[in-house]
């Protein structure tokens, strides 16, 4: 009787569910080593909200442990990686994604390093080309009218 | 060539200085909630202090203040009297406490020692906190009578902060 009462009480308790945010699972329910592996992969793509730049997979905080447990549960239920990341993004915003999305201002994060690298490469190549093409300085030998030098030449050239 | 390099260098340094300057004074822990202006994630949780089960959706029609806290959170001790006093002064506003990563015993001890004026719900696995994007405690969400989140406050509130945010829920 008491067990039934507690069971009924538990059934009444309902935390917000991922389905309300991202719909029904679109993948295959995972289990065993594949589940653990995928949990680790996704846990390293989500930022711990109470840490400084740590993934939930690396954080010892309780909040991170809860988030990791939820990632695991969602994978068990068949949610895809994209759906899980989207679920956390809907609650925490893009802040929670360790890999920023290629959109809006974030585009600069992806483009700027490549652009700076390309500009640097062009500068180095153009500088190198100039060094390569530059003619070697021509040394014009002017006739020297030095009696001492003439004497040395005469001595050297004498058989 | 040297002039070009100098100009590029100055531009790069100026951009870095601008970005660093823009970040000055900002709380690195602050998270802009994407839930502002959206329906509050529904939940049904058991109140540890009253025993009743609270369904957020059943509270539609009046403003709701959802305060996430824990007994191990020091700023929550500081904030608690403000919440209790305002809950007593504002009977038309529904205050709800949501405690995560805690135990019923500790919560009841806390409330017995410091008073209680509204239901305190236990979020046993932190799922409710995650759905609301809670980054730390205390954190408070203000929900208007239509069930839309209109404001979020991170950290301990005093009465002025509470009333200013509540005003957004009453508009």
Can you walk me through this structure?
The complex is a heterodimer of chains A (159) and B (171). With 159 residues, chain A is mainly alpha-helical. In chain A, 58% of the residues lie in helices and 0% in strands. Chain A contains 7 helices and no strands. In chain B, the strands form 2 sheets. A 5-stranded mixed sheet of chain B has the order 5-4-3-6-7. In chain B, strands 1-2 form a two-stranded antiparallel ribbon. Chain B is an alpha/beta fold and 171 residues long. Chain B has helices at residues 2-23, 74-89, 104-114, 127-131, 159-170, and strands at residues 44-46, 53-55, 64-69, 94-100, 120-123, 139-143, 149-154. Helix content of chain B is 39%, strand content 20%. Chains A and B meet through α4, α5 and α6 of A and α1, β1 and α4 of B.
Overall structural class of chain B, as computed from helix and strand content, comes to alpha/beta
The tally of helices of chain B reads 5
Question: Helical proportion of chain A?
Answer: 55-70%
What proportion of the residues of chain B is helical, as a percent range? 25-40%
